[in-house]
Amino acid sequence: MSLIDMVRTEARLAPVSGIEAVANYGRDRAGLIPLWSGEGDMPTPDFISSAAARGLANGETFYTWQAGIPELRQAISRYHKRHFGMDFSEDEFLVTIGGMQAITMALEATAGAGDEALYLAPAWPNFAGAAGVAGVKPVPVLLDMTDNGWSCDVEKIAAAITPRTRVIFVNSPSNPTGWTADRETLQAILDLARKHDLWIVADEIYALFYYGGGRAASFMDIMDPEDKILFVNTFSKNWAMTGWRVGWLKTHPSLSRMFENLIQYSSSGVAQFLQRGAIAALDEGDSFIASQVERAQKARDIVCKVLGDTGKVRFSVPPGAFYLFFSVDGMKDAERAAFDIVDKAAVGVAPGTAFCAGGEGFLRLCFHRRLDQVEEAAHRLAKWINAQ
């Protein structure tokens, strides 16, 4: 028996990222345009980096508040007041190592071995992966793709609930489909959670990357203070900070001490100088976000026009996030197609099989890049598609 056979089954069976496999294959190709990862191409703006550098220069390199420095939690509260119209206390927020730690802690608090967690699929795979590692069974509920776009049939969620169900994970706007729940759908999901006494973990990190004007609908618009909802968020997307690994969790203030304990026994907190940059992002970054959303919408329209003109691509124009999830006529193996696109089109895309159930037969590209690169990538893809 080898060492790998002696570790926990859940750890041994943690899935390999299907995105990583294609990225590792093509990342060193000269001239390749990488659209496989969920990030933009802009480095973190200077007003954010400079604030972090000042904190570092000022010696902010010691242990700090486990929940996050008060100044950052106050800034997060101000952010929600501006964009969501909500008056939340700083005590309702905890600073985390990216959104992923927030998700992991939300799972730790709401479900355990033998329990089930529902999630809407196709989906960003990390929630299902984290659930599996924790011994929680991730149960996909498939979104529907129609001529009018992706939609959520709440009756499917209801049908998937069992006595073991503890939590529903809702990512809206969605990675990879761009599906964005309207207020009525969120209300129906919340009503279902209340009826069955379930937790909701709300991943609304793309709420401002919404192309319908303003922001996307949020559970914050309809919830009562005592509802069992945990909100996970990250600085990664809005402020071009993917490599910083800073995020936050929004919870009921009565749960803050418990989540601080979970932080203590996992990371012991986020570096204080990084939190200085996060404060600058929140307080000074609204115009930067607006410019990024405007650029992403133009990029979306370019790639949809070019691929749509082939007559061989099926997709729904995404109302939110910054991904196009599309299928190609005659494409039988999305994973093989992704590698072939690297070789023949010099474009990096992710296979739909990397996004859990329902992703078979699709490819995902991230269009959050310079418009000239997006247009060039779209034409390369169109050429590859037309040659099939």
From TrEMBL:
Leader peptide range in chain numbering? none
Family statement drawn from the similarity comment of this UniProt entry: Belongs to the class-I pyridoxal-phosphate-dependent aminotransferase family.
Which ranges carry the Aminotransferase class I/classII large domain?
Answer: 35-381
Q: Which reaction does it catalyse?
A: L-aspartate + 2-oxoglutarate = oxaloacetate + L-glutamate
Q: Which domain of life is it from?
A: Bacteria
Q: Which UniProt keywords apply?
A: Aminotransferase, Pyridoxal phosphate, Transferase
InterPro entries (alphabetical): Aminotransferase_I/II_large, AspAT/PAT-like, PyrdxlP-dep_Trfase, PyrdxlP-dep_Trfase_major, PyrdxlP-dep_Trfase_small
Q: What is this protein called?
A: aspartate transaminase
Known Pfam families for this protein? Aminotran_1_2 (PF00155)
Residue runs in coiled coils: none
Enzyme Commission number(s) of this protein = 2.6.1.1
Q: What class of enzyme is it?
A: transferase
Spell out the molecular function terms from Gene Ontology: transaminase activity
Q: Which cofactor does it need?
A: pyridoxal 5'-phosphate
